[in-house]
Amino acid sequence: MMKRSDESDPPMALESAELKRRHSYAVSVICLLLLLPLVMVVGCGPLVTTDPQSSIFPEDSDVDTRPEKTWPVERTLVSNEVNCIAADSDNVWIATAKGVSRWERQQDKWHHYTMEDGLANDMVNAVAIDGQWVWFATDEGVSRYDTETDTFTTFRSIDGLASDEVSSIAVDGNYVWFGTANAGVHRFIKPVNTWVHYTKADGLSSNHVSWITTQGNDVWFGSKEDGVSRFDKVSGEWTIYKQSDFLADNDVRDIARDADGNLWMATVAGISVYSPQTRIWEVVSKEDGLPTPYIMSVHISRQSNSRQPSAISGQLRDGPVEPESSLTDNRQLKTENYKTDSRQLTASEVSELKTIPAESRSSQIWIGTDRGLGSCTHL
């Protein structure tokens, strides 16, 4: 495991103590890893593929020509192509390529929203919950849904956006940050209904922003070609980190924050971990035990009363020769393969991992893919 620190790091004596503390902390890091172009993902809960044009069947088959009516799975998603998941105590919001699906957890009901209902566009790239509001990033602007009035408000370039192709969202108190595919980021100041625009000229590493994570006074922006940027909201200063500095790779697909404030960055060459307290970087690679360096998503969850990494009750299906995808827990990078029900979900791209509180001390892990939605119970 490779470790590096900024030139401005505190004394290196802090590194050993900090790393030992972090290694023993009760944090499970769940990484969904893709090893082959075609990935088989199976969760222990119901796996939902619900697009009426879907051709996925409950059993493996070399021939994909059986009539759809032979597959008796209730269709609940507006599209199988899941881009993002957000959840609160009442609802699970699923952003897809054909609109938004909402699952009411207590009533077990599904609702769907498209352009006909007020969405800016049916291609929804990201979703974020902000109190009574739910924000959606689409290919034609930003939509805000008011859960109390059941109405949409849409913001486009005419309203202050530099680009309508919005890729990511992060709620940050009185601010909401929006990353775009080609025009940098926007900060929406809610109390005054004002937009502030930042680009590469201001300090971003790239105008193509793939992910946003907030942490205190800092906002982190991931890109798919130029590493990550850190913005200090107090000083207004920008810091850029690239592969030549500390990152495993400049292609950053996801950023997650654990309970200690450490940032876990999923890249196509492994995981980079950054501690803001010590300013120490670590790179976890295939040599450290990752089945593959190609990491699409990373999610952090905690087990309340344990000093050991928590387990996942569920299963990822083995391929013909080796596991094609896996859930990996904590720093030991122990891969578990599980058994589940007869339903199978074929996926070539995994977009999102999300932990949702469930009954007792367990929680539900939702897996979004380009061919549907799956879930496991996290004990």
UniProtKB/TrEMBL annotation:
Domain of life from the UniProt record: Eukaryota
Keywords from the named record: Membrane, Transmembrane, Transmembrane helix
Region (Disordered): 305-329
Transmembrane region(s): 25-48
Name recorded for this polypeptide: Two component regulator propeller
Organism field: Geodia barretti (Barrett's horny sponge)
